[in-house]
Amino acid sequence: MLKKILILVLVVALLSTSLLGCSNSSDEKNKGASDSGSDVIKIGVFEPMTGTSAAGGEMTVEGIKLANEMKGEVLGKKVKLVVVDNKSDKVEAANAASRLIEKDKVAAIIGSYDSSLSMAAGDIVKNAKVPAVGCSPTNPLVTLNNDYYFRVCFIDPFQGTVMANYAFKELGAKKAAIIQDVTRDYSVGLSKYFVDAFKKITGDDNSIVGVTSYNTGDQDFSAQLTNIKGLNPDVIFAPGNYGESALLIKQARDLGIKIPILGGDTWEAPEFIQIGGKAVEGAVFSTHFTAEAPVTEMSTKFLEAYKNKYNKDANAFSALGFDAYMVILDAIERANSTDPEKIRDAIASTKDFVGATGNITLDENGDAVKSAVIKKVSNGEFKYLTTVEP
Amino acid sequence: MNMSIQDFLQHLTNGISLGSLYALISIGYTMVYGILRLINFAHGDIFMLGAYITYYGLVFTSIPWWLVFILSAVITGLLGVLLERAAYKPLRNSPRITVLISAIGASFFLENLGTVVFGGRPKAFPTPSIFNSVVRIGGVSIVGVTFIIPAITIVLLILLNYFTKRTKTGMAMRALSKDYEAASLMGIDINKIISVTFLIGSFLAAVGGIMWGTKFPQLMPLMGMMPGIKCFIAAVIGGIGNITGAVIGGFILGLGEIMIVAFLPGLTGYRDAFSFVFLIIILLLKPTGLMGENMTEKV
Amino acid sequence: MKYKKKYKKKSNSILYICIFLVILYILNKTLDPYKLRILNLCGIYVVLGLSLNLINGFTGLFSLGHAGFMAIGAYTTALLTMPPAMKEMNFFMQPIVPFLANVEWSFLPALLMGGLVSAIMGFLIGAPVLKLTDDYLAIATLGFAEIIRVVFTNLQSITNGALGLKGIPATTNVWWSWGMAILTILLLKYLMKGSYGIAFKSIKDDEIAAQAMGINLFKHKIMSFTIGSFLAGIGGGLLGNLLGTIDPNMFRFPLTFNILLIVVLGGLGSIKGTTVAAVIITIMMEALRFLDESINLGFISFEGIPGMRMVVFSVLLMAVVIFRKEGLLKES
Q: Is the terminal CB of chain C with fewer CB neighbours within 10 Å at N or C?
């Protein structure tokens, strides 16, 4: 019995010392980002680096790192990025945000690609009063009722309308079918906004002939597609992750479904074209930014720097990551402080900030009002079609 | 239910396509289990390795694709033997739970090693065009893979049957599977037979992985998890240890999944659960599987 | 003489528990939220590890379905403790089922309810399935866990489907997690000392012999399984109310694997082993995160590789299983 209690005491001692010893030695030096005595400001980044959304996360982080290189200091202190992988998993996202706040004591957070992951961290940043800026999550719920969450991109009600308009006006579609990923808030939300907008613009409540669904990670969509085929829509709207969507479109074409298939901003990943191959030729989707039509002088600067560093053309997610970082730094300058709450107030009052993706002004919900860009897959590349103003 | 004949035939074709894929993968699973009574949880991950090795072969070398396929399968087969030596051989005389745990550990090891080595972003499998060609018969579209996979499965079935019934090694395998102790007492080289079993089983898993890649050209380190479990279920349904049973089980699962979505679109989300529900029904009604023999346990 | 010894043992135990509670109190006051979270996780994993050990280690039933019971417990407790306003916000796609919309219980009854519902499911699942042998039982229980997950993903109006639940009240604190852990340890000790414990052990050693000795296999197996499920449900409830957000996707096989890891490393059938292993592994899981991210040793820093952490853990598991078959600590 004594042995048992000795072990228990040992365990508790082990626990305390290892937990205390766990923290980086730099933690001891920087007692908190709000300690103006330290010479480093930490900005946390939580993005999916593995899992189904890995491509989106990686591209975003590329943009953030580029921004950090371009502007690595503010208020005379060095800016350090703490990058944490949330594994495309909601619970991990919550954990990641917690760790950034509690362990690394960051002054602000950037993240995450995929609205579900951002929403998972929503309450945590709200309760800890640390501001978070999302680069590309488009679901309205990310910032709704959350004074501490912001985003530098447009939101899905707008995106859904853009695509619905495109379907109706450019493609002359009167009937549409929806294929959504029920495991993602993004897909479910965007589908709903498309449906609302499409019904309104066609004036026909029955213009949506069918809605079918799949789960992230599914690979076989032949049954759902065969069902949809039988309903004879003019166009299919299938906003979903790039991997699943590419497979879905390929299987649709194999089944002889020739109608246009439309999607949202998550399609803009090189894997979409690699996996989809010839099948995704002609796929049209909405997104935030295009290298072919730079909007501001910052865009040109960003595009050059990106090309120099990574040797390829920038995509929307890198550009948004870049902007999120720059917005935070701008806010820190305006607040003239490293206190998360003051930074938060400064972010909220961001007005006409010149970003790479356009002029960024955050509204009362913390959302940016931006124009959308429509792209089409042409000859194995993403080709810019047009810009749609809000 | 207003489904046209054409739609039904299309669903049937889709089901056969998926089912034949499951069938192919289940054969390897059932072989290993039949002889060693081991649920090789890592089978799905060997499947994944086969697909990835083929990917690197196709992308980075100029070897003709059919040769790449064969070579990758052989390499994966050898990796399977390595796995057996490292993770299962030391536990040959341990209680079954221990071996099972080692298998689960091996599976996680391979999955995470895959993430570390191959990276988290998916890789596009460069499918040779013959697999992608589509044939349309009376409004029903059939992709090349739908013909090729069952063909390969049948060829392999025939080869395996010949091997186990006509060759010495094959017969030794059957002897081991019938009665492990007696067979070992008869002077059969257990190590050799087990290695051969794993070689063939992993080879088959690799072929399954390659075919999976041609049909679903998105490779991810965790791609083997679901197919692995489903194919084990197929093997159990068909009667563990029985190769023909595994094939039948695979088809049942593939067709079943598709038909649920086809006839009960409201239950589309439950599609994955179908395999498990079917498994439990079989386990409760006829645990030895559809083609298995009833075995009594001697005390 | 014997009576005096027993009395001394009992009072010693109480003393030790008191000392432990004092240490807990001090830790609760001094540690920062991040470390407190880990401390809570340790306690929860003690409960979970012991619950799996009861089924797998003590009774020898190889069940791989633990994640499913945790899911039931987590969702039940979450739905019962969430305030109605929060529920409305969550269930925006499809409104929540009426009888759950306005309930708001306090933590203890919700937790117990979670355990109870899990136990009932455990009973229903166990009854038909427990007669299967090792491997088949493993796959059948795994199958049930997956079925539970798929069902939860689709029951939009009860569980909010794949979107999961956010804003679960964070009612778990060290007193709850470690309180439950201590209760679980005591429960298991009590069970194993009595006739039930002997029955469980004999079933594990040799089922047929046990049956020949007159032990009712079914009754004892079901009992072990049901109690294990009850505890798993409680563990799940504690986990949900610690994390604040749950979704069906977290209750998959990797979660069961984590607990299996704890049970095997601590030694199947050892209460002490599981407890210690739960604490050590939970801490190491966090401490080794640096393998996934970047390592900064001051003079060198190198990029971590995502996935490395679990590679290390799997190798560890296999090494223990292959080289030290009894686990890290000898069976008590």
A: N
